[in-house]
Design brief:
Elements lengths: L1 H17 L7 H13 L6 H19 L7 H4 L3 H16 L1
Length: 94
């Protein structure tokens, strides 16, 4: 989950920086992404939900004791994160 989150985080940060936004924290990135891209409809709200869930699970995985993510919980996120990366790449290229 950690690596999936960071794949999403870095592409979201690229989008935010490209848009002139400079959040200083992970929570700031999540808030800016939600306010400027999800709530405005520029990016589908499902990606916002996925990003938010990965944010939460990354926190739990990194800081909670004895939390293990099973393959069946992780695998469903690969395709949506790949789609989000492609979508943001396309937005930045415009």
């Amino acid at each position: 989950m950690n690596r999936l989150y960071y794949a999403a985080y870095y592409v979201v940060m690229a989008l935010l920086l490209h848009s002139g936004l400079k959040p200083g924290t992970h929570n700031g990135a999540k808030s800016n992404f939600s306010n400027h891209f999800i709530k405005t409809g520029k990016i589908d709200k499902e990606y916002g939900k996925i990003y938010s869930q990965l944010f939460t699970w990354r926190q739990k995985g990194d800081y909670d004791d004895f939390l293990v993510f099973e393959e069946e919980n992780v695998m469903p996120y690969f395709e949506p994160i790949e789609e989000l990366i492609s979508l943001i790449e396309d937005i930045i290229k415009q």
